[in-house]
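Recall the central idea of this unit: under ordinary conditions, the amino acid sequence of a chain determines the structure it adopts. In this exercise we apply that idea directly, starting from the sequence alone.
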Amino acid sequence: MQHEAKVMRLTELAAYQEGAVVSKTLLSKLTGTVTLFAFDVDQGLSEHTAPFDAMVQILDGEADITVGGQPFHLQQGEMIIMPAQVPHALHAVKPFKMLLTMIRS
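Accordingly, the structure predicted from this sequence is:
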């Protein structure tokens, strides 16, 4: 898929939905993906692992993220790297939006 150059406001590309997690894939290549998520309050992703390193950037709101059993509280403008094969989970303290970048190498 060919992409055109254009300016977009990330926080407007995915809307919050009551009681739900919304995701929108922005880029998907063999080498990795970039996905935008919008989590309503108290929504999240249960503990899981990924085969590749992933970086989460908080664009709006607040989230509790656990990586390898260690809890982290992230707010707008903060980011965290989740290493490959390390269990991690996410929980929306407030509605939050995040950009997930996964590198497949």
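Residues 16 and 38 are 6 Å apart (CA to CA).
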